[in-house]
Amino acid sequence: MRGLCAALALLATTALAETPLEELRLLGEHPVAGMAGGNLSGLAQCGDSLWAVSDREDDRLYRLTTGAAVWQAEAEPFVAPPAPESPLPWGLRMRTWVAGQVRGGGLDFEGLSCDAQGNRYLVSEAHAAVLRLSAMGEAQWLALPEAVVRQARASGMLLRFNALFEGVALDPDGERLWLAAERQRRGLLVLHRQGASWRCTGGCVLISEGGREAGPAQLGGEERPRDFSGLAFHQEKLFTLERQAHRICRRQLSDGAVERCWSFAAEALADARRYAPDYGQAEALWVDADGAWVGLDNEGRARADGELRPIVWRFAAPQGGWGARR
Question: Which residues belong to any copy of the Phytase-like domain (predicted)?
Fold first, then answer.
């Protein structure tokens, strides 16, 4: 059965690659001022506020003031308790620790989500762990089972430095949690809350994918490893941000299978918005009924028009909404 599912997923991916994607329409582009460490790596709409996180700062979230063309980031400090013992192997832990000492951000927060109660959730790539930050600013690490990392690694994920958990998503009730493994292999995992802890029900891994695929024509169609750089939950679907392909895809909750994708390459790769290769990566995603927020991590590098600040794009929902069929 697992082999049949993999074959069907491959057929769906092949058909997707051969079908021209609808381009999302850009509604607004907003440089973000006030993020001292830059490196915007996560976005989430919690209540009436849009929040951001940087993977170079371990002690703050940013509330974004969105009333003007240039947004202002206001820091909300917090104190994270010591991280739980990492289930990652020693070699990966040491390489990640050294990188954190050199560049800052030892926890390496790479994704942000929230629930209807106002709790914010940050995934630490360095520790393969998730921090919950309450509406009152109290921080606590979730009690995740070691099976998450064990099953992910058995499926070929979380084997490479700087290619670990890159996205997190929660349902509004805070009862289900999804994690996205970045690349080589990329994948999706799911956990269910049971009291104060979390469990894998019927296995953690939804999907694990390897291989390479062609990028947008604007970049010459160069083949690069498939990746996930952001994850969002909306209306009982998962949405993945796939940066090298410059697209957002809707996926089934049950098995992570792709249903439909939309491209943002036409807007992202306009001449004035170009960055040097491997910079200006789309790292953050939030999806709502009206559209999607996409955040760029520019690592302090300027793009072609000279803009140095992190960027957030607002795209309109596709024609017919996010649930539309082809």
Answer: 38-185
Neighbours of 49 (CB within 10 A): 15
Q: What is the CATH number of the domain that holds 185?
A: 2.120.10
Residue-number span of the structural domain to which 169 is assigned: 2-316
Would residue 325 count as lying in a domain? no
d(CA 316, CA 295): 15
Give the chain's domain count: 1
Per-residue pLDDT tens digits for 42-87: 999 999 999 999 999 999 999 999 989 999 999 999 999 999 988 8
Residue 203, burial from CB neighbour count under 10 angstroms (0-12, 13-18, 19+): exposed
Contact call for residues 233 and 225 (beta carbons, < 8 A) = no
Say if 140 falls within a structural domain. Answer: yes
Q: Are 179 and 164 in contact (CB under 8 A)?
A: no
- Please check whether residue 116 is in contact with residue 90, taking contact to mean a CB–CB distance below 8 angstroms: no
First to last CA, the chain: 27
Please tell me the distance from the alpha carbon of residue 7 to that of residue 317, in angstroms, as a whole number: 31
In a domain, 198, yes or no: yes
pTM here is: 0.93
Tell me 11's DSSP state: H
Contacts of 108 (CB under 8 A, 6+ apart): 55, 96, 99, 100, 124, 125, 126
Give the closest residue to 264 by CA, choosing from 282, 279, 247, 240.
247
Q: Which residues pair with 241 in a beta bridge?
A: 230, 248
pLDDT in tens, 291-323: 999 999 988 899 999 999 999 999 999 999 999
CA distance 243 to 211: 15
CA–CA distances in Å: residue 49 to residues 44, 46, 143, 229: 8, 5, 27, 22
Q: How many residues does the chain have?
A: 326
259-288 in b/e form (b: 16+ CB < 10 A) is: ebbbbbbebbbeeebbbeeeebbbbbbbbe
